Amino acid sequence: MVSRWQNTTLPLEREVQPDTTQLDNIKTQLDLVLLALEALVGIGSEAVLQAAEELNLQDLVSDRVALWRLRQSNPMRRGTGGRKKLDIDEARSLVLISCHLAQTHQETIRTAVLLLEELAEQNRQPHQAALLGDYLDQFTNTYQERMTADNLSTDALSDLALKLLVDLLFYSSPQGSRRLWVALLDRANGSCPSGR
Question: Residue 98 in contact with residue 180, Cβ under 8 Å?
């Protein structure tokens, strides 16, 4: 299916197909990227499906049920009712959709990252800015509601949310989908903790 990805910014290197464990890691990371977007800008399934249509990926992400099943493929998700294996083309599709949504909301992402930098320079906590406080609260609440308990503290969840926020800025760039795809492959192999 090489032709499907020829006109995208996703690398078509002669990569080794991810094994089951690596795909599990990719599924988890993709779901977290979408969760961060959801928490920051309030995207829902309609926005994801609209993006899939705009990118001609509706055959892989066709409706709410298909999207829910793809998101449920994250092994960290609560429940097993809709879980399915995520194949490589579905993973690539979610990368393109995530980056398309990040580009659409780049101004909000950039504003949030600038606020984060300003607060850090002033030795102030991120919660002290309304935009960041709302994002952190929404991310933490949604994560705790949807993911299995893994003993992550509120501070650890805040750190994860802020790291994902900075990553979103990179993923909203013109080469964002390439960056996200490479980061996912590197993380799946345990070689890129930074995500970039």
Answer: yes
Q: Which residues are CB-neighbours of 30 under 8 A, at least 6 positions away?
A: 74, 91, 94, 95, 98, 184
Domain residue spans in the chain? Answer: 17-188
Query: Looking at the predicted structure, is the pLDDT value of residue 151 above 50?
Result: yes
> Which positions ≥6 away from 74 have C-beta within 8 Å?
27, 28, 30, 31
Model pTM score: 0.85
CA 174 to chain centre: 16
Cα 30 to chain center, whole Å? 4
